Amino acid sequence: MQEKLRAMPKEHQPLTPKGPDPKWRYMWRVGPRPSKTRFQELNSEPVIPEGFPEWKETMDSWGYKMISAIEAVAEMAAIGFGLPKDAFTSLMKQGPHLLAPTGSDLKRYGQEGTVFAGYHYDLNFLTIHGRSRFPGLNIWLRNGQKIEVKVPIGCLLIQTGKQIEWLTAGECTAGMHEVVVTKRTINAIKLASEQNRSLWRVSSTLFAHIASDAVLKPLGHFAESPLAIKYPSICTGEFVEQELSVINLKGNKGES
């Protein structure tokens, strides 16, 4: 990955993190889970923090709205790709969807160049978020060009993850992105300070997943693609566990 980054033109290179991400994130599981699954850990019950009586209602209310938006887009994408309307949404049923509100303290970590999320792709199906309070999200186009994202007020942003790349044999590639403090972030911090507003950068990200026990493989005519060989049939839960293991987010089965 680092060799690939060094080969990029300077203006399109991502910033390299210098230690752990200085952000706060809470993962809340949204929607029903399967009664029987081979992947219990990925489908465990959500944890409700003490002291927030309205927590479940608030999180589920927003989470279900986000999933509904993802399902509408997934149906349109399926139709556009010449697949049955429910090609994607049928695989999403009882998926381990995660609403992940994310906070970054720009009062403490507001220096230009600070990395809140290093250059990466998402391992899930589709990722959706509302407009963050502060700018800072960069994405990379297929041609390698780096672009700073601007989400209009009232709009949601959807990014492609690795699971839709698998289902379309690479027709949709998982989008590379990063979250960093940019010049635009600095300007927004100054304005918020003058207006006595909070300097926490908050984003309401939801990671929509294909169900853990569903099979991940190129769908319909994508199975005939010359690239299909790169996307062998695999159980989605196994794929997720492999990805988590590579980035050290999965414990060993032998650990207590």
UniProtKB/TrEMBL annotation:
This is Non-haem dioxygenase N-terminal domain-containing protein. It comes from Gossypium lobatum. GO terms for molecular function: metal ion binding; oxidoreductase activity. Residues 1-23 are annotated as: Disordered. SUPFAM superfamilies: Clavaminate synthase-like. Keywords: Iron, Metal-binding, Oxidoreductase. Residues 1-13 have a biased composition (Basic and acidic residues). InterPro entries: IPNS-like_sf.
